[in-house]
Amino acid sequence: MLTYVVRRLLIAIPTLWGVVTGAFIISRLLPGDPARIMAGLNATQQQVDRLRHQLGLDKPLWVQYQDYMGQLLHGNLGFSPHFSAPVAAQIAQRLPYTAELAVLATAIAVVVGVTIGVLAALRRNTLLDLILSAFAVFGVSMPVYWLGLMLILIFAIDLRALPAAGADSPQSVILPAVTLALFSIGLIARMTRASMLEVLGQDYVRTARAKGAPHRRVVLKHALRNAVLPILTAIGLQFGGLLGGAVLTESVFGWPGVGQLLVNSIFYRDYPMVQGLVLLFGVTYVVINLLVDLMYAYVDPRIRFD
Amino acid sequence: MSIPESDSIELATGQLRPDLLALQEEETGPRREPVWRELLRHRSALAGLIVLAIYFLAAVLGPIVFHDYNPSYQNLNNTLAPPSLQHLLGTDNYGRDELMDLIHGARFTLGLGVLAVAVGIGVGLPLGALSGYFGSWVDLLIQRLTDILLAFPSFVLALALVAALGPGLKNVVIAVGVGSIPLFIRLVRAEALRIRELPYVEAARALGVRSGRVLLRHLIPNALAPVIVLATLQMGLAILTAAGLGFFGLGVQPPTPEWGSLLGQGENYIFRDANLITFPGLCIFFAVLAFNLVGDGLRDVLDPRLRQ
Lengths: 306, 308
Fold this sequence. Notes:
The complex is a heterodimer.
Chain A: H1 2-29, H2 34-39, H3 45-55, H4 61-73, E1 79-80, E2 85-86, H5 87-122, H6 127-141, H7 144-158, H8 174-200, H9 203-210, H10 215-226, H11 228-253, H12 258-268, H13 271-299, H14 301-305
Antiparallel strand pairs in A: 1-2
Chain B: H1 18-28, H2 35-41, H3 43-65, H4 98-134, H5 136-150, H6 154-165, H7 169-195, H8 199-206, H9 211-247, H10 259-267, H11 275-302
Helix pairs in contact in B: 3-4, 3-11, 4-5, 4-7, 4-9, 4-11, 5-7, 6-7, 6-9, 7-9, 8-9, 9-10, 9-11, 10-11
C-alpha cells in the first residue's frame, strides 16, 4: 500500500507544477496593464512606471515566473490591488463559506444519489425506475444558474420561506446547497444504478440469494460494496462539476465564497487574485482526485498490487 | 481464434479471407440493422432527437422565416410587457419580443455547443490516437498535458480562458472547447491501446502498411463509436458552460440573443418579470437534456457491452 501511495504522490507532482504554471500563464494573458489598474486612473505615467518596477512587472517573463515560483514556495500568493490586502488572507476569509457549501452539497448528493441509484436498479424497468432515472438525467441537464434563480423565485419571492441571498442566517445555505447538489445527485444516481445492475447480475449475488441470505444483506453487503468503485469515481468526477458549479451558485445567491470572489476579481481585473484563485481551484481538484485514487486502493486491494 | 499465418489478407480470387473476416466480426459483432434505426426505437433517445429536430429547425429556419425581426431593435415604450397575442412570451427590458429572441438565439447556443466539441475532437482525437498507438515518450508527454488540463474544473478553466481571451463567439468556442480536449485524448488513447493489438491491425502492420495509414484507415475509424457517444454528451455540457459564461456577461455579447446572456439580463428583472428567466432557462435545459438523452441512447446502441 505504501509503495502505491508514494508512487501516486510522485505522479501528482508534475500535475501540480502544471497547475501552478497554468495559473501563471492565464494571469499573464489577461488583457490590460495591471500596473495601470493598480495605480488608478489619476496616476501619472511616472507613478505607474514606479509601481510596475516595484511589482517586478518590468522584468522578463522568465524572471517573473521564477519570482512567482519562489514566492509560492514561501506561501506567498501575492497582493490584491482591489482589496489592498494579501491574496492569501482574502482567500482564507472566503474559503470556509465555499467549504461549507461544498461539503453540504456533497453530503446531500451522496445520500440522495446513492439511494436513488440503488432503488432504480432494484426496481429495474418499473415505473419507479423510469421516474428516478428521469430525475437523474434532469439533474445532470439542469443549468445550475437557472435552477438557482427558479428556487429563489419560488422559495424566497413567492413563498417567502427562505432567504434569497447572502449568508446572514443558518437557513441561507439551504437553497445554494440544494442547487449545487442537483447535478451531483444526477451523476451519482446514474453511476450507482449502472454499477448496481452489473453487480446484481453476478454469480456471487445469485449464490448469496440461493443460500438464503436476507434481501437487505444481499443488497447492502454483497452488491453495494462491490458496486462502490464506480460510485467513488462518480463522487470524484462530480467534484470538478461541484467546484465549477460553486462559482455559478455563489454568484447567483450572493454567497460570499471563493467562487463569487473569482467572478468579481475577473470583473475588477484583479490579476493576482484571479491567479491565486485559479491556482486554488486547480490544486483542490488535484488533491481531491488524489484522495479518491488512494481510496480506490483502500477499497479494492487489486489496485495497490497492480 | 488464432492469428492467420499467411501474410496476405486477400485470397488469390481477390476475395477477403473468410477467417480474417470472421476475426473482424468477432470484434464488431455480426452485422446488425443500421444504428439510426435502432436509435429511433430507443424511446428516450427518440424524444431527444425530436427536441433537437425542433431546435435545429428554429436555428435554421427561424432567421429566414422571421427575417424582418431585428434583435438589436429596441422599443422602449413597450418594455417588460406580459404575454399577449402580439408577443406570445411578452417583451424584455428593451421591449424586444422574447419569443423572437429565443428563436434567433437558437443557432448561437446550439452552434457554440457543436463548435466547442469540434475543437475538442479536432485536437483530442489525433493526440489520443498518437498517444495510444506510438506509446513511449509521445504518450508520456501527451498524458502529462492531459493531466494538467484535467486538473482544472471545466467551468473554472473556461471562465479563466474567456477572461484572458475576451468575450465573443470565437473566444467562447475556444474557452469551452479546450476543456473537452483531455476527455477526447483519454478516450481515443484507450481505444487506440485496445485496437492496436487486434489481429487486423497486426495483419496490416505485418503487411508493411505505414503507421500513418494504419492510424487513418484502421485505428481511427474503429475508435469512432465511443467518440460519437462522448461528443453527443459533451455537447450538452458545452452548451451549459457556454450559456454559463453568457449568463455572467463574459460570453457572447448583447444584442446577440444567446440564451445564456438573455438569462443573465433577465436576472436583473427577477422581481418584476419572471418570464425573462423562465423561458431562456427552459430552452437551455431542454437542449442539454436532449443531447444527454440522445447520447445515452447512442451509447446503448453502439456499446455492445451495455446491451442486454
